Amino acid sequence: MKIQDIEAKVFLALGKEDKFVEYHNIIYKLVGVVVDFVNLDGKAMNILPFEHLNKYCAALQRSPNEPCQCYTSKFLIEARNLQQVLLYRCYAGLTDLILPLYDEEKKYIGALTAGQFFVEGETPCSEEFISDLGKREKVETGDKTLYELYMESPVLNQRQIEGLIDFLHYIGEMILDARSKILFWEQGNAADRIQLIRDYIHQNYMKDLSVEKIAARFFLSPNYFCRYFKKSTGVTFVEYLNLYRIQKAEELLRNRALGIMEISIRCGFGSISQFYRYFKQIKGVSPKELRKKTYVQK
User: If pLDDT is split at 50, 70 and 90, which confidence band does 67 have?
Assistant: First the structure.
């Protein structure tokens, strides 16, 4: 399956994540703000119940299923280029924010959006401006005027906005973790997945293999990778990597032409002291002692 097809499947699966919907509901209850996720192509997940949509914004929508017009490609691109939260005032006079999300390889995967609120202390748009907007959009509001609906929008102070952004970062981590799991399970045969990871370690043990790097290689978040590896092998990734490196070092010790320092480097250890520490911890003796007792005498 092509990565584009997998990403499309991931997006659909994320929309069914109960935790995402639950966190949106919590934020809505706390501050009256709606949250959504927009994918790489700018398509909104639309997980929020329509009744949660700001009544003013709902009046400006042509249908409940139409993505919010405030999160245009212009602002999404700007947030993506900035690589940080973008807070801005939308065309309808309310504040929105965009939090761009990146995977472990720093690849942009989409953005979390939240908004439809006033910032405490800011000056609202005039009644004339809102009235003209309603006429242009041919808005029907029922019993209340569009301006009345506009002025009923929630007001957030700076502390609440900072808390909202912190919560969005937390939700973003949840999305990345869920996305990683889906990508991982969509690739290869389930019975062979852990062997694929082992093979990668065996082929790259001499390199600087961090949890973050190998997790990214298999589309996993570091946390999920660590849990999955330990559950599948019975040991942690670091323990497995060091065991394999020491195994390869033991083989190289047979070659008396190789110095201890060179063996340490060839096996991927950051320093000779680190090599000695792990070797003695695993084998019970130092590399030099093992070579002398086992290989030199023979």
Answer: very low
